[in-house]
Amino acid sequence: MNQPAPPNPSMEPLSRIQVLVAIAATALVLFVVARLWLLLGSVQQISTQLGLHPIGIGILLGTSITIVSGVLYRLWPTYRRSANVYLNYILTPLVLPDVLWLGLLPGISEELLFRGVMLPALGSNWTALILSSLCFGLLHMSDLRQWPYMLWATCVGALLGYSALASGNLLIPVVAHVFTNMVSSLIWKLKVTHWATH
């Protein structure tokens, strides 16, 4: 998710419109950076090949990421606190249909930049995978207290990057990323709504 970083506790929370605009603005910036990189550099973007097979692989990968994230959330209190700060700031003002926005914009724009352009620009090798994953992780860290969430995002970035390199198809990490964002956000929103009504 490439949403705005959680603020310092003394700052006011964002409204629904502010969060949606921030998500869209961030996605636009990532799209522009990716396009400029392609135009100004001699980079061959990882291709996107449509088909049921890559969509199925992407859904399986997204399901695996969501399950592991849920296990970490339950078993690692430091990660749970870090994730809650981030998710509470982003998801609390949103309504359930916004999950679609939250899944598509970050999932597509982040994959285009970090896996589609950055990976091949850095050499499509292990070094490129590590560097692009670290950049992806840092995008998800607002301050040092958020290091567990950043560490998780870095690991997810490495897995998504590996899927792009191994398959040569950007659609797989895009589907996995969109699926993970949407399902994780939906579960979190429904859980919070359930707690609020009971």
TrEMBL record:
The keyword Protease belongs to this UniProt entry's keyword annotation: yes
Domain called CAAX prenyl protease 2/Lysostaphin resistance protein A-like: residue spans: 95-183
Transmembrane segments: 20-40, 52-73, 85-105, 117-139, 146-164
Superkingdom assignment: Bacteria
Keyword Coiled coil among UniProt keywords: no
UniProt keywords, alphabetically: Hydrolase, Membrane, Metalloprotease, Protease, Transmembrane, Transmembrane helix
Molecular function via GO: metallopeptidase activity
Protein name: CPBP family intramembrane metalloprotease
Taxonomic source organism: Leptothoe kymatousa TAU-MAC 1615
